[in-house]
Amino acid sequence: MFVIKDIKTKIIAWRIKRAAERRYHRRYALQNIFRKYPRLETYLREVRRAEELGFP
Predict the structure, then answer these.
(1) Chain Cα centroid distance, residue 17
(2) By three-state DSSP, how is residue 9 classified?
(3) Is 21 exposed, middle or buried (0-12, 13-18, 19+ CB in 10 A)?
């Protein structure tokens, strides 16, 4: 019984650790930031468009 409980605890801890690493991994970080702050993505698009038009 204790062995099964210990294995389940390790599996759950591993899943939590993996989810945390994925959340802050550089590949997913921007997606999570944009999901949390949707206005930031709009702002960055406007800045890029202004730079393409020649504004500093």
Answers:
(1) 14
(2) helix
(3) exposed
Give the pLDDT confidence of 11-29 residue by residue, as tens digits. Answer: 888 888 888 777 777 777 7
- Residue whose C-alpha is closest to residue 41's, from 52, 32, 50, 53: 32
In the predicted model, is pLDDT for residue 4 greater than 80?
no
Q: Is the Cβ–Cβ distance between 34 and 40 less than 8 Å?
A: yes
Which whole-number Å values give the CA distances from 49 to 2, 16, 37, in the listed order? 60, 39, 20
Q: Which two tokens stand for residue 49?
A: 């468009």
